[in-house]
Amino acid sequence: MPQPEVIAMNVGNTRTQIGHISEGALSTAVRIPNTDLAKIVQHVVGETKRLGNLPAIVIAAVHEEIGANITSALRDQLAAEVYQVGNDLPVPIGQSLDRETLTGVDRLLNAAAAYDQLKQACVVVDAGTAVTVDFVDGEGTFHGGAIAPGAHMQLETLSQHASALPEIKWRKPDDEPFGRSTAEAMLQGVYYGIRGLVRVTVERYAEHYQAYPLVIATGGDGQLLFDQDDFVDRVIPDLTLQGIAVAVRHALAADEHEHEEH
Fold first, then answer.
1. Lesser CB count within 10 Å: N end or C end of the chain?
2. Number of domains in the chain
3. Which among 88, 106, 221, 230 is annotated as catalytic?
4. Given this model, what pLDDT does residue 57 score?
5. Residue 99: predicted pLDDT
């Protein structure tokens, strides 16, 4: 059964990722700030023209208000249906959490994509506006994890609540053991603080699980934080979009199975 062309959208707290899924695989991806709604819509409209036929549009939104604005604008511009992950499209991952527990759709999609690729226990670290460290067991069940402020948020908080600390842009600190200026000390604290958080949290998961899981990093800051970290096995920048591809594939398979039964 041929798979449809899909434009996948991951609406985060600060940026929207947009990718093209062809034959079940993610081929291209861009990130656009959520403050530029017109550019987001323009990019999707341009992709539909480039593809020739109107593709399916699938959106996963952590920031629900911006997700709703994007959905409304796309329906006006394209007269197309926009499918929502979680409402129209389930995430193919088991959960050990209570049904009343609300978990961000991005965390579930990351877990689904990681397990789909690895087929074994793993920890998914998503480093963006927030840093999440989530555990998936060897049966493909999502157990939850830890959430902490991301790098940008930490730096902003330091400058806003400590009068002697300046506003600085987030970047990788100098390769020295000591921060030799206030700005470098702040960068050192945030950079190694996040990496330390991941190590301690993964060690706790491994102790509980009685086995050491693979560690996958993703998110806007995943490459900067973990590219040189031998504790992290893989950095996959577009893991959430790959999770949407997995969700689409599973939904199509379920529809085909239901059709065969009837």
1. C
2. 2
3. 106
4. 93
5. 58
